[in-house]
Design the sequence.
């Protein structure tokens, strides 16, 4: 098994091009994310303070729309290594509460992104469209395997192509 220093990122990321809506194609399981959630999206936007607002939305196992708001920050000028937190704003200063968000592979058109962490605990394949070709998915997941990620528990959420709207969240009382 590789060591954490072997997990490499892309050389650089143009954050302006990376911003916007991404669909979750697949991921490794996480304690805080419902394994049966569907129509999972992440919307990234630049805040006035230079940090990135992370707006994650999905339909949970009960069919209810949910939202989680976080904040990401680039660790260096490459913009390929970021930290992200979903704590309430007043607690975001606590350093050990931030997770790594490393961009491991990114296509030139910014249509597909493979995101992970140096400990190989977290992995996401994100795309600008709700589905990707089998060849593209195989290529990106092959890259993850080459970096030492164990894909045996990979979760592929159902994507209908619909996104959770503000109105859906307000109706469900889930707006954060």
Sequence:
């Amino acid at each position: 098994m590789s060591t954490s220093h072997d997990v490499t990122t892309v050389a650089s990321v143009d954050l302006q091009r990376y911003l916007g809506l991404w669909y979750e194609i697949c991921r490794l399981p996480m304690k805080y994310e419902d394994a049966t959630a569907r129509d999972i999206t992440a919307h990234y936007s630049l805040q006035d303070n230079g940090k990135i607002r992370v707006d994650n939305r999905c339909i949970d196992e009960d069919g209810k729309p949910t939202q989680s708001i976080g904040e990401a920050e680039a660790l260096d000028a490459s913009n390929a290594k970021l930290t992200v937190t979903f704590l309430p704003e007043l607690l975001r200063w606590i350093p050990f509460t931030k997770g790594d968000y490393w961009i491991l592979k990114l296509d030139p058109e910014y249509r597909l992104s493979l995101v992970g962490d140096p400990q190989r605990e977290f992995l996401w394949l994100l795309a600008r469209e709700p589905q990707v070709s089998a060849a593209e998915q195989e290529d990106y997941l092959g890259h993850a395997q080459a970096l030492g990620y164990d894909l045996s528990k990979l979760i592929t959420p159902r994507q209908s192509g619909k996104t959770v709207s503000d109105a859906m969240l307000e109706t469900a009382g889930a707006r954060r």
